[in-house]
Amino acid sequence: EAQVTQNPRYLITVTGKKLTVTCSQNMNHEYMSWYRQDPGLGLRQIYYSMNVEVTDKGDVPEGYKVSRKEKRNFPLILESPSPNQTSLYFCATSWGSEQYFGPGTRLTVT
Amino acid sequence: RKEVEQDPGPFNVPEGATVAFNCTYSNSASQSFFWYRQDCRKEPKLLMSVYSSGNEDGRFTAQLNRASQYISLLIRDSKLSDSATYLCVVNRGTGNQFYFGTGTSLTVIP
């Protein structure tokens, strides 16, 4: 079954404690991206990757890092999380122009 | 100015009604256009792509007006299951950033 998986699905953490949200896809897609979704602001792209070892900033990259060492995985790293990074995060992959989203990770930073 | 703007609604319509959503985009270089559907707390899913000539998929019709930088979605014979948030999405080209509108909320009432 074609799918995009994210882990963890829910996370409550404290300010400054480094965390990683994993994203994995089994569709062999080259394009992957991370979004955050906040009320009234919609989905905003954080980073995207067009292929292995190629990453680019989206609209809201500050405070985030990514890596793309292999095609199937695209982890999102928060080196020092802050409360304003409390949000719903989605990973997505793309074949052509259609995007397939993971189930989301709800992150709360206290 | 936002890349993509949508009327957030909410739209509350009776079953069987016809409802239309509109979306405008700011960048004339945009090349690909989509409508996604998002159910509460779930990941967005592609509803339909929007082609220059307009396209129809069952009860759903999408239109694109490049001159006015305007996209629309028409839903005929609304069903209870159509209740969701509808997201307008624009892409400047394959492999580039995707820009999402904040979404339009639809509730279909029995």
Structural overview:
The complex is a heterodimer of chains A (110) and B (110). Chain A has 110 residues and is mainly beta. Helix content of chain A is 0%, strand content 55%. Chain A is built from no helices and 11 strands. Chain A is globular, with a radius of gyration of 13 Å. Chain A starts with a strand and ends with a strand. Chain B has 110 residues and is mainly β. Chain B has no helices and 11 strands. Chain B has strands at residues 4-6, 11-14, 19-25, 32-38, 45-50, 55-57, 60-65, 70-75, 84-91, 98-100, 104-109. In chain B, a hairpin with a 6-residue loop joins strand 4 and strand 5 (45-50). The radius of gyration of chain B is 13 Å and the shape is globular. The chains are: A mainly beta (110), B mainly beta (110).
Topology:
The complex is a heterodimer of chains A (110) and B (110).
Chain A: E1 4-7, E2 10-13, E3 19-25, E4 31-38, E5 42-51, E6 54-57, E7 65-66, E8 76-78, E9 87-95, E10 98-101, E11 105-109
Parallel strand pairs in A: 2-11
Antiparallel strand pairs in A: 1-3, 3-8, 4-5, 4-9, 5-6, 7-8, 9-10, 9-11
Chain B: E1 4-6, E2 11-14, E3 19-25, E4 32-38, E5 45-50, E6 55-57, E7 60-65, E8 70-75, E9 84-91, E10 98-100, E11 104-109
Parallel strand pairs in B: 2-11
Antiparallel strand pairs in B: 1-3, 3-8, 4-5, 4-9, 6-7, 7-8, 9-10, 9-11
